[in-house]
Amino acid sequence: MRTIEKYKEYVNTSMVKAIEPVVIERAKGAVIYAEDGKEYIDCFAGIAVVNAGHCNEEVIKAAKEQMEKLIHACTYVYYIKPVADLAEKLAQITPGRLKKTFFSNSGAEANEAAMRASKQFTGKYEFIALQCSFHGRTVGTLSITGNMGRKRNGGPYLSGTTFIPAPYCYRCSFGLSYPNCELRCAKFLEDVIRFNTSGSVAAFFAEPVLGEGGIIVPPPEYFKEIKAILDRYEILFIADEVQSGFGRTGKMFAIEHYGVEPDGMTMAKGIADGFPLGAFIAREELANAFKPGDHLSTFGGNPVSCAAALANIDFMLRENLPQQAEEKGKWFMEKLMELKDEFELVGDIRGKGLMIGIELIKDENKTPALEEAQRLRDLCREKGLLIGVGGVNGNVIRFQPPLVISKSELEKAFDILKECLKLLGED
Ligand SMILES: Cc1ncc(COP(=O)(O)O)c(C=O)c1O
Fold first, then answer.
1. Are both 312 and 335 inside the same structural domain?
2. In what order do the strands lie in the sheet with 24-28?
3. Could you tell me which residues are beta bridge partners of residue 237?
4. Which of 69, 122, 139, 341 is the most buried (most CB within 10 A)?
5. Same domain (yes/no): 152, 260
6. How far is the CA of 141 from the centre of ligand 1 (A)?
7. 101-112 residue pLDDT tens
């Protein structure tokens, strides 16, 4: 039986419908090699994961060496060096007073830990989150996710979360334009706290750049305005950097663009270049809300994943990957702007570093071009380019390649994208 048939028969996963299924055999850097010999430039990086490139040799070496020594031990009884080293490293590279880390296997579990610690620390029990947000697929994290597309067929979720409009300037919920809006969406937080909650809000969760919601980049002053309100009401700020972290937006963490210090931060995806690992780092007082035995994951902080993460972070720092992302992203966004002038389908181009979204629209009313986005993804795949499609309306092309992608690969990706936009017009 071939891989595709076996998937159909035995694998319980929600594969997105694709015209031509691709079986991947191996990958290197920003290139994926399929079983049938075809090559693809990977501009989605396994959903924004392999920031240091597919099969990075330094990461592999560190993981192999750790594998020879220890793969797993009981996480709540024994002390393991790469776990301690990684926690120390995270305290060094994250902003402000973030210091102590709880390790999990995934982003969702990191957010679950943040939710629980926030409640335990504050003694409060509600949350506020953003519309258009995504925080994971557990019942808890779907409760703080502001997107019906992700929550469909799973409710009811936990009560106690209130959502505020996202800082989605292209589709402002208040019908305003930045900067004349004077950040109404951020100021609205205070109304929501006063009128929609019981006043017992433990934490506000937000992605500093919203990923799944459609690469939504909040205005520069947004989080300062939000943090001032949160401080007045003694509400914690948890930055979900699962997708925006580890160099993706041109800084090690996206919240650094906004000059505010979160009380806690969650991470996963880019932390270990593809090895499964999640983390929730917090200020010491917040982290200490967990007492021995309170919270635990059997595989969380797996020594092999931690060793891989350490090598990954060292590689990122030495190669200045955040800066590379900023430079390459700036250059690529400028090129993409050409497409905005040439194709009416291209409504908006936005992003930071190599976290870039292209929002496709059908007309001047900005009707989301959902089918066109899917067709564009399929056409690009046929021509050897892998891109993502997302957004709350399903009409945003997500461009999130490994940060090590070369200029010539970016040029090739641009040419394919442009060719496919032309083909789409001829359909
Ligand atoms: C911002 C954000 N938070 C949390 C998650 C969930 O992470 P995981 O799939 O590792 O559970 C994701 C995944 O896409 C994400 O983008």
1. no
2. 24-28, 31-34, 39-42, 385-386
3. 204
4. 122
5. yes
6. 9
7. 999 999 999 999
